[in-house]
Design goal:
- The protein is of the alpha+beta class.
- The chain has three helices and ten strands; from the N terminus they run βββββααβαββββ.
- The longest helix is centred in the C-terminal third of the chain and has 15 residues, at 107-121.
- The protein starts with a strand and ends with a strand.
- It has helices at residues 55-60, 66-79, 107-121; strands at 2-5, 9-13, 19-25, 29-35, 40-46, 88-93, 128-131, 137-142, 148-152, 155-158.
- Strands 1-3-8-9-10 form a five-stranded mixed beta sheet, with no helix packed on it.
- It has one domain: 60s Ribosomal Protein L30, Chain: A (2-Layer Sandwich).
Length: 160
Amino acid sequence: MKHIVGVADMKISCSSGDVLVTHALGSCLGLAVHDPVAVVGGLLHIMLPQASIAPEKAQSNPFMFVDSGVPVFFRQLYAAGAVKPRCVVSVAGGSNIGGGDNDRFAIGKRNYIMLRKLLWQNGVLVKAEDVGGTAPRTMYLEVGTGRTWLNTAGQERPLQ
């Protein structure tokens, strides 16, 4: 079954037949995590780097922000049976959709820096990533196999 992960949302599955997908990863980040032994997979779509810009929004939806959403996401993965050392982590997004020098706020870049810092502080390694550039991406995670792939401008390719 296909499960759509919306903006500032996440889904976790323990069903090997499930595919998790999130669309329109521009400056947003997609974070896919898979534990191949427990057959647990999750996909998170994060919008902004820091919850401090809107604490009330972070309170009602921590998945909007890297610093509040990623810890909650990992806690829920562990509660579903994932084990940290077995987790395979992939990241996509963080684009400058407009291209050129018009990215005054550098949201994509700041999202990525915040995510890498948070993962590093918690001893989580990233196996595969496709970040930056100017193209939006759609990210997929097949829970049974852990296969992660992207679709960019109609071109499908594995995320390795």
